[in-house]
Amino acid sequence: MKEKLTGALYPLITFGAILALWLVAVYVWDVPSYVLPKPLAVLGALKTGYIDGLFWHHFFYTLSSTAMGYVIGCVAAICVGAVVSEWRIAERLINPLVIALQSMPKVALAPLILVWFGFDQASKVIMVVLVCFFPVFVNTVVGLKQTPADLLEMARAANTGRWRTFWEIRFPSAAGHIFAGLQIAIVLSLIGAVVAEFVSSSEGLGYLINASALTMEVNVMFAALVSLAAMGVIGTQLVRFAHAKLVFWEGTLAATVQE
Amino acid sequence: MAQVNRAQIDSVEEPASRPEPLGTPLVVAKDLDVTFHTKKGRIEAVKGLSLNVGDGEFVSILGPSGCGKSTLLRVAAGLLKPSGGALSVGGETVAGPRSDVGVVFQKPALLPWKTVLDNVTLPVRSQGLNRKAGAERARRLLDMVGLAHFAESYPSELSGGMQQRVGIVRGLVNDPKVLLMDEPFSALDAMTRETMMDDLQRIWNETRKTVMFITHSIPEAVYLSDRVIVLSPRPARLVEDLTIDLPRPRTMDTMSDARFTDYTRHLRGIFSHLDK
After folding, report:
1. Measured between alpha carbons, how far is residue A240 from residues A91, A133, A171, B42, B237 in Å?
2. pTM above 0.90, yes or no
3. B138 in a structural domain
4. Is residue B150 part of a domain?
5. A156 touches B: beta carbon within 8 Å
């Protein structure tokens, strides 16, 4: 219990210190409000934004682009990863493309994607799909290839077919790795969505930040940033929760005989 | 292909021409060669090895570490193709994993995401056999090893000895003719080992499976077996084939029996010669 309390204390200290620094900057050093808004002004912007309803539209636009792209990108990555790890030919065909694309910054593709897929939401979703794909793909392949040899030999001795070996042994044994990829993809998916909105959009929190920059409404920019941070934190926590629930055996592995 | 046919004929003819005192041979290895090709060159793991295990017999294969005894077991399990000669089970040359051969590994190799029951019935699902009947057999066997209450538990909730018992039950779940065991107790502590030896003897007594038991422990081999086969260091050849004539069931008292000590001393003598 005490452990838990002190655990919660440390982040509070950090945030308290940041808030204090912010207050000092605004009230003592008199940083002008068009550079750094007062904390209360940000709260005010959040209040008008979400209570008067202007923000919700942008919030859901970004959320839906991110969520759709995330789901499509991650599912595709897991499927392609499974195919690549099961069939040597697929690995040889796909790997060069993956290596070429992986080392390229995907956000640099944003203008091209807009040209190809238009200026509405589809292009944002595709951007998110692209940035989500690689970490999940790489983790899936690595995870599937690291199936313990003793489990595979046991399955072979029991005449377990390829399909059953995949579903009952290889896929669950890769689950931890896949979730690590899904975790990274959450953060990347938000980056993808916001960058796509920066490039061209009339909706979404990324657009809101861009538009507020032009009108020097720094408090609105801050409010949008807080919204994005909240989205990221909630998404990450959801994935973490799902990880703990679905891959329940992780962390208990040390208890099984490993000698 | 010609070799395979020859081996089949041999194993069919053998019981007729040379009757075995301990039932018909079920597992027959004939002029077995296993050679590995590695970066460092050829390694001959097994060379010209012939042996047989009678139906219902408990045979231990004893040998120094790395002598190729596990290789022999992997050939019998159909996990490894011999480079020469053949090994047959029930007169059929082993060409791959078979449903009438159960394997127990050195590590329990349990799936941490499956319950004990689902782990044990993996061979049933894999062979496409009747799942209900399989689950019933599994529960009976779990009961036999004292794990009836752990059917719905996960492997991480079990001790090392219990996990290896689950491994043994999985090896037996398809009611195989032959049970192959690859140093199944070597990862366990000394106390657990002794209880496991008694458990295995009881299981063998109740099921009367043909068992090929790989070990590097002399007392373990003598305690459990009808016959102890000693293999030489690589390449593995047969050096001794010793029938253990001790009354069953064997107990802790058996270990202080004069004959038990004679057998272990004899085997130790062979081992010390092997080292030279």
Report:
1. 30, 19, 19, 49, 55
2. no
3. no
4. no
5. yes
